[in-house]
Amino acid sequence: VKIFAPNIEQRDVVNHLKGSPAEETRNVLVESARLARGNIRDLAELKAGEFDAVIFPGGFGVAKNLCSWAVDGKNCTVNEHVNSTLQAFHSAKKPIGLCCISPVLAAKVFPGCEVTVGQDKNVDGRFPDAETASAIAELGCKHICKNVNESHVDKANKIVTTCAFMCKAPLHEIFDGIGTMVQEVLKLA
Asked: What sections of the chain are H helices per DSSP?
């Protein structure tokens, strides 16, 4: 297992304790290295031939830094290294795992694919970003409704997705859904 991140400046920095923007700049690769305890490389160096699969975590950083979804929605652009990584694994017929908001990357890069970001309606207030499913459909992809503890496998494209924190759920349910995504990616590898 190797960890990669793009060597780019973050769109913005948030003080998560206060829930407000911070007046500083940070680099995505440097911040990712902090989380990965230094064992990380620049995404530009990733070679699909050296790996059996790729998994993209989610989080709002994906919507801000790996693409511009947070600002542009379905009209977003995808970071060039993220795009080329996705294309390389897809072309090599190797599995791609995506969770939380990161399935929008596949929706943008692979028209016609199937993904899930949970439900397409805000069921019991658990899916506050349910409109993302409609935007995915507008991109020409099929959104598959799934519960937080489930994942969806697009067998034709070898793309496995789960909604994770797109659902307001207990952590153990989110953990279970991510676990099913990882297991399905490994089955396809």
From this structure: 28-35, 60-61, 69-72, 80-91, 103-109, 131-138, 171-188
Give the pair of three-digit tokens for residue 98: 């995506």
CA distance 121 to 167: 11
SS3 content of the chain, % helix, strand, coil (to 5): 40, 15, 40
Q: Is 163 annotated as catalytic?
A: no
Distances (CA, A) of 146 to 23, 133, 159: 38, 11, 15
Of 67, 76, 99, 100, catalytic: 100
User: What's the predicted TM-score (pTM) here?
Assistant: 0.94
Q: What pLDDT is stored for residue 9 in this prediction? A: 93
To the question of domain 49-188 being in CATH 3.30.43.10, the answer is: no
Residues 6+ apart with CB under 8 A from 148: 118, 126, 162, 163, 164, 167, 169, 173, 174, 176, 177
Cβ atoms of 152 and 160 within 8 Å: the answer is yes
- Residue pair 54/89 in contact (Cβ under 8 Å)? The answer is yes
Q: What would the pLDDT profile of 17-30 be if each residue is shown by its tens digit?
A: 988 888 888 899 99
The residues spanned by each domain of the chain are 1-45, 49-188
